[in-house]
Design a protein that fits this description.
Length: 99
Amino acid sequence: MAIKIRPDGLYEIIHAPNSNVFYGFDWTAEVTPDTVVTSNWVITPTLTLTDGSVVGNSTSIKVNEGDDGRLYYLTNTITTNNSEDSRTIVLVCRPKGAC
């Protein structure tokens, strides 16, 4: 999986239109000594998200399908006992190997 950093600082990943792929974050550096208590995922425009999980300070979600040529903004918002934080990944929906 190729990851690129965009000029706006967001991570960009290619997501194939017919794929069902897990994406996630390791929040350890941001929350230690605290731990992740809740994790909420939102994708814009809307796609089906399934199988969300929190394991220690790592969060993940499965993104299902997508429309070729679209950009999707996948945001994970977490809470700890003391704070809230969020991160966004840009998914570029196109077939594997497409430029």
